[in-house]
Amino acid sequence: MLVVGLVRASDMPGGRGPVVEVLATREIEDCRQHNELLVPTVLAVVAEAGVQLDDVAGVVVGCGPGPFTGLRVGMASAMALADALGVECVGVRSLDAIAVDALRGVPDVVDARSVLVVTDARRREGYWARYECGGGVPRLVEGPEVSPPAEIVGDVDVLCVPDGAWEQKVGARGRVVVGRPSASALAELAVGGVTVDVVPLYLRRPDAQVPKAMR
C-alpha cells in the first residue's frame, strides 16, 4: 500500500509535544503501480492541501520492513524529493507508525501496556514488532522480525493485524485492531524524534534472484 500525506506540525502549549494536523492524504492499494503513481500522487496531495512544493520543510519516509521493490521505490523517491527541495529526509519504521495508530484505535484501553504489530510479508510470513506503552506512546522492545504467523506468539494488550484473517493465523492473543501506517503517525514520530536512518528494512533477500548462469 502507498500512503502519501502532507501535514503541518506545531508545538503544544507548555512544551507537551508536537501537534500534527493532516492537510491532505491519499492511499493507493495497488502495490504494482507504486513507481508510476508515486510522483503524481505527491503532486495531487500538495495541490489538495493548497500549498506549493517549495512550502515543504521536510520529508518523512517509512523504512519498512517491507518488500524489496516497494521500499526501494518509496525511499528513493523520498530522498530525491528532499534533495530537490533542499530539505531533510528522515526515516521512521513503518511498524512504529502502525503501533501509534493501533493505540488510537482502542481509546478505551487507557492502561494498555503492550502492543504487537503484525503486517503481511507474503511468502506465508509476517513482519512483526513488539512494543511497551507508557502514556500512550509505544516503545520498541523486540523486532522488527519476519516469521511464519504461527511462530508469532505471546499475550499482549493490543494485537494489531493487517486484516481480520490474520487474527486466526498468528499465535499471539490480545485485543485485536486492524492497522496500517498513516501519514499523521509517521509525521508525529518524526517530529517527536523517533526516527531511524534512511535505510530500508528488508529483513530477507528479494524474490528476484540472479540466474546461476550469470553469477
Automatic annotation (TrEMBL):
A biological process term (GO) from this entry: tRNA threonylcarbamoyladenosine modification
Pfam families linked to this entry: TsaD
Domain of life: Bacteria
All copies of domain Gcp-like, residue ranges: 32-154
SUPFAM superfamilies: Actin-like ATPase domain
NCBIfam families (UniProt xref): T6A_YeaZ
Protein name as catalogued: Gcp-like domain-containing protein
